[in-house]
Write a structure and sequence with these properties.
Layout lengths: L3 E14 L2 E14 L3 E5 L6 H8 L7 E6 L2 E2 L5 H11 E4 L11 H11 L4 H14 L15 H13 L5 E5 L7 H16 L3 E6 L2 H4 L4 E6 L2 E7 L2
Parallel strand pairs: 3-8, 3-9, 6-7, 7-8
Antiparallel strand pairs: 1-2, 1-4, 4-5, 9-10
Length: 229
């Protein structure tokens, strides 16, 4: 039996703009199992970024139930959400979000500092992750000394260093050229083959096709799903 990592039931998100209710997400039902590689595919304005923020515990739904690793996330306060984010979610962003004054290894260590991991342990884990993503020779380089693809590899190492339940990637190749983007997607394939659970947010069908599952979102509603055999 598949182990559920994420279970969303009737997730709705509304905003009030100019006194009018705007429904951004409408009754989203989504299950992600351990070891899945899922892409959430949709155009700009489809609601995919809002859905990503709720999956990543950066935002809360207006209504509905969200379970992450069997914990009911939508009832947690800000402090509890921060703990969940650091423990359960590894974020990979389009623009890398690296701190420019820190070296690659210092950037990768950051989540472990927040988690209270002792210095010697976190340095060793950061080294192992950078080596894993092919940057064993670049640990002391700062972001401006790295190519875009290398910066994204640092970001992926940082996302993985806490051994999160889900690797959540937002347009991970959006700031890269096509060749470099393909190399990054190959790295995601390798991580998936190791058993990691990956959810990728994208507007690009070619990038989405790298995933095992494609879930389409349009106008705040999940429309259809395609599973690669």
């Amino acid at each position: 039996m598949n182990e559920q990592i994420l279970n969303m039931q009737g997730i709705t998100k509304t905003y009030y703009m100019g006194g009018e209710e705007q429904i951004v997400l409408n009754q989203i039902n989504l299950i992600v199992n351990k070891g899945d590689f899922a892409a959430i595919l949709g155009p700009s304005g489809s609601g995919k970024s809002t859905l990503m923020n709720i999956i990543g515990c950066l935002d809360s739904p207006t209504s509905g139930n969200y379970y992450l690793s069997n914990q009911k996330v939508d009832e947690l306060d800000e402090k509890e959400l921060a703990i969940i984010r650091n423990r359960e979610i590894g974020f990979v962003f389009q623009q890398f979000q690296l701190l420019p004054r820190l070296t690659a290894i210092q950037n990768v260590e950051l989540p472990l500092i927040y988690a209270g991991v002792p210095e010697r342990d976190r340095r060793q884990r950061a080294k192992e992750m950078l080596t894993k993503v092919g940057l064993g020779e670049k640990m002391q380089n700062r972001p401006n000394q790295l190519s875009g693809g290398q910066q994204q590899r640092v970001a992926i190492a940082r996302a993985m260093v806490t051994e999160p339940t889900i690797l959540l990637a937002d347009e991970p190749t959006g700031a890269l050229d096509q060749k470099t983007g393909q190399q990054i997607m190959q790295l995601f394939h390798e991580l998936h083959e190791e058993g990691r659970t990956i959810i990728m947010i994208t507007h690009d069908i070619e990038i989405a096709n790298h995933a095992k599952r494609i879930v389409r979102i349009l106008d705040g509603t999940l429309r259809e799903e395609y599973v690669h055999v």
